[in-house]
Amino acid sequence: MLNKYRLATLYLAACCIIGCTTYSNTLNSELITQKFGTYGIEVIENENNIRVSTLYSYKENERISRTFAITTLTEQIETIFSVEHDLITKGGSIGAVFKDHGWSITKQHKFIGNVTIDNQSKRISRLMRIEPPLPLAIHIYVFVISKNKKSFNYATIAEIHHPAYLTSTMLKSTYGREYSGANNMAEVKKILTLVNRKLRNTK
Length: 203
Hints:
7 helices
């Protein structure tokens, strides 16, 4: 039980929880391409509306994960975005698919902080080619899509970033103008528990 809630307790105490303020709409895929020159995505898990993926770039022909993403997709698939959802379930990049199909994208920010990976976090250490223990920035937000004056909460996404890509300080500078820790506590704890479990998965 201690391990299960260790991350949630540490990071809720130490980090900032973000209210539902909407800011920059630049896609993660676009930022990775701008910074590292290449971009790719691999879906590692995709079941029960939970998708785990790595967003990577290449360095000297070596694939390096820049973002490890745990996404909880909506269970309510509306006809208006069913085509996009089908592409995403087949491995498409969520932001790129919706943007390419004419949707506006916003992020409702829930949490920005750090998670410290340890020796049990073998999956993310291998993908990012980093050595634990090491604090990594985590960003949790609701991915909102809009078209024809209609908006939908498509997913809740937890992104863990490579230290050479994004830090929590950089994320807070971009998104963290308004903070509120009172309304999101239970939801963030639940998401951090899921993140902790996926980080320790060895697949």
